[in-house]
Amino acid sequence: MSTASARRTNTSRAPSFPFDERDLDRFRELQQLSYACAQRVGDWLGPGITERQAAARLRRELVSEGVQDFFHVPFAWFGDRSAFRHFRTPLQFFPTGRRLEEGMPYVLDCAPVVDGYTADIGYAGKIGDNPIWEKIAFDLREYRELIVREVKARKPLAEVYASVDALIVRHGYDNRHRRYPGRVIGHQVTRMESRLPAGVTVFGFGARTLQTLGRELVSEPLHGRFPLWAGGRLSRHAPTPGLWAVEPHIGFRDVGVKFEELLVVTEDDAYWLDDDLPHVRRWEEGR
Amino acid sequence: MTTEPTNPRMITGAGVPLAVYEQGDPNLPTVLLVHGYPDTHQVWDDVAASLAADHHVVRYDVRGAGASGRPAERRDYRLELLAADLFAVADAVSPDRPVHVVAHDWGSIQSWEAVTRPDAARRIASYTSISGPCLDHVGHWIRRRLTRPAPRSVRQLLGQLAHSWYIVAFHLPAIAPATWRHGLAARWGTVLRVVEGVSPRPGHPQPTLADDAVRGIDLYRANMLPRLLRPRLRPTTVPVQLIGLQQDHYVSGALAEDLDRWVPDLRRRTLRATHWSALLEKGPTVARMVREFVAHQEGRPTPAASAARSPRKPFSGKLAVVTGAGSGIGRATALAFAEQGADLALCDLDLDAVERTAELSRLLGANARSWKVDVSDGPAVDAFAAEVAAERGVPDIVVNNAGIGHSGTFLETTEQEWQRVLDVNLWGVIHGCRAFGTLMAERGEGGHIVNLASAAAYLPSKMLTAYATSKAAVLMLSDCLRAEMSGFGIGVSAICPGIVNTNITKTTTFSGLDNAQQAAKQKRVSGLYARRGFPPEKVAEEILRAVTQDRAVVPVTFESKAARLISRFAPGLLRTTARLDIG
To answer: Which of B169, B234, B336, B514 is the most exposed, fewest CB within 10 Å of its CB?
Structure first.
């Protein structure tokens, strides 16, 4: 109990927001570019294509747009793998030979790095008709609104996580982001200033990522904060000012749908970095 | 419109005059009833009377029976001719529209011959078959089992052989006719009463019984051996409803096992009746099944409408009622039934929540509707049951799931709290069982009732006095009800989940605590249940299994199973732990 209250006092001395407008523009541009690449790959997808082919294509698209490094390698999950069904080990996140079929949902996830600026996006889609997918994709809007509302109110991140869980239960879905390593719904994104070689990955994460992340994982808890956002004790702190990649991943039966985008958290405000994204446009059109 | 049968109209079948009886408005869909051996059209009296209200009902005495002609030669009783008779009657009574055939026993055998003719669909819109298989299908059924003599196949073969002793007897020269003439015909009423459970009625059996029975022996002799030994391939595109009789002494259910091979559009239903009591005691039930099937084929909406949707799943065509379906185990159970093909009638106190469950169920392909019902309110539950029955038909499965949690010692628990816990947890189940159980028993098609008890039913705790008492009552209620309902072919299961991660903990009340303390306690217990992490979906799986396998008591989680075991072998240990301050 004493450590927890100590953490809370620490968080009152929150760091100031580390980015200026120019930085935010660079992050926004890269996020736009990532979604554009994912959407192009999504349009190209069709029955018979494998996860490996999709992930490789996504990587080629990003590299051809000037991406130099990856926060993590591009992922593609098809069918019930979009809801991480039957996942036992982290190795199962990597693309497989699973082929797309008519009616299948899919998720593309990539995190390119350019000049140390990082984007981390999730793009969900389906081949042909899938009413369950439509329903979840429609409902995801509530999660996007809930998250920014509660972060803006500066609720502890663990509580926001619990609110998301409560909404998931109310909807009758299940929480699939708890399958991610650390059960995270999001993680902090900083400007990477590593000198390690670009393009080298270890266990799917860029070498530079691991260096930066490793440093933060050690230093941040000393200030009662944690760069990974989950539901446990370590996330019982007010939202740290900075950029957070937030990825609610919702499942129902064999369908999983997610979005992932950057949330801007300042000392007294919170907003999504960009509203001009495929899932947001879809909601606007559906209104 | 006439509802009583008129005097017979004579129609010439394949060279034989047939006595045809018509009832009801000829402009309505025609239902053609074909009787078996040794009956006449009279065996349909109850069914016809019920159907005549909204159908044009036609029955006829088949050749060799009642007022129809009695050809002398055995070859005149071949199935081709009997089928030709059927088409002749259909052409005469409904020249412009195909008819809906309903047939029993030998009537069903000869109607199969008609239905499996390549041009059948032109004249026959649907076929309801009761206890009479296609002989060609049986021939293939036997061959398949002889060529793959697995223990199960052999058991099925021997089982049907034991049912078919009389067929052999009918092939013995002189003996069968003599038996009918010298005694059996006179005692047939007694046989029906004692063996078949048919209560005597004036005019039954018919005065012509001895002649009908003797003449009809040629049905067996002309057709059985040729068809069983040299079966032809007889598929059909006509939609078929097969009514399986659970207490049939002559036709075993296994015979229909391969039927999907021949009939792509097949609907199976079961009726708890013997070979003859189906028509003579449960005529209105058979009439209702025919009415629903005919209405569906005529394109009218019916409770059975979703049955024909493909692909077939274990609970396709079944209607399940789930109370407290807005969250937790209730919602998970509803979704599991939806996924397995069942249609749903759902209720909860929270209408938004249960509507959400219905919406998700529809996404899984179910036809689902939701109601706001307080299960502790008897008249409300009765009204709910009546509405469900009127709108969707009588349910096949009822899951009495709604319940609340309460924690507190006996001395702390107020009378009001006792009232509330017993009202919901016990009376809710009683109301559900009574309202739906009555409907299910009346319908006579069997079904299943599932009551949600709890591990607390056999796991005493000083902190759960009211809750455990209510759940123990549910467990005993289920056991008693199971004994009573078995007579109606209705199974009853009690489910004892244990610690399952649902929102019951968030609404659990605690005696002797103020609001803030209650909230803190709810949070603590919810956290404990969440850490246990047993999902309601796994309970739902067990509930479906309990229904399929008709299990009496189902402890679900490890702790529930362990407690049940200990409660039997070391109840003293549980009485000791009951003193602990847990819960």
So the answer is: B514
Tokens of B301: 């909406």
Q: Which residues of B touch A170 (CB under 8 A)?
A: 353, 356
- Going by C-beta distance under 8 Å and a sequence separation of 6 or more, which residues neighbour residue A241? A14, A15, A16, A17, A18, A265, A266, A267
Q: Quick check: is B60 catalytic?
A: no
Cβ distance of B356 and A171 shorter than 8 Å? yes
Segment B232-283, tens digit of pLDDT: 999 999 999 999 998 888 888 888 888 988 998 888 888 888 999 999 988 9
**Which chain B positions have a beta carbon within 8 Å of A131's beta carbon?**
363
Instruction: Give me the residue spans of the domains in chain B.
Output: 9-307, 319-577
Fold of A17-285: Creatine Amidinohydrolase (3.90.230)
B391-419 pLDDT, tens digit each: 989 999 999 999 999 999 999 999 999 99
A129 interface with B at CB cutoff 8 Å: no
Cβ contact, residue pair B503, A169, below 8 Å: yes
On the question of a common fold for B9-307 and B319-577, the answer reads: yes
CA angle, corner A254, sides to A248 and A257, nearest 5? 25
Does A253 contact chain B (CB < 8 Å)?
Answer: yes
At B136, which amino acid appears?
D
Q: Which residues contact B6 (CB under 8 A, 6 or more apart)?
A: B21, B22, B23
Nearest CA in chain A to B358: A172
Q: Residues B147, B149, B155, B161: what is their CA dihedral angle, to the nearest 10 degrees?
A: 30
What is B319-577's CATH number?
3.40.50.720
Q: Which of B354, B363, B529 to mutate to test the interface with A (most CBs of A within 10 A)?
A: B363
CA distance B7 to chain A (A): 58
Q: Verify whether the Cβ–Cβ distance B353 to A131 is below 8 Å.
A: no
Beta strands in B393-536 (DSSP E): 397-400, 406-407, 447-452, 490-496, 509-510
In angstroms, the CA B222 to CA A61 distance is: 77
Structure tokens at B351: 């209408």
CA separation for the pair A74, A120 (Å, rounded) = 10
Segment B103-151, tens digit of pLDDT: 999 999 999 999 999 999 999 999 999 999 999 999 999 998 898 888 8
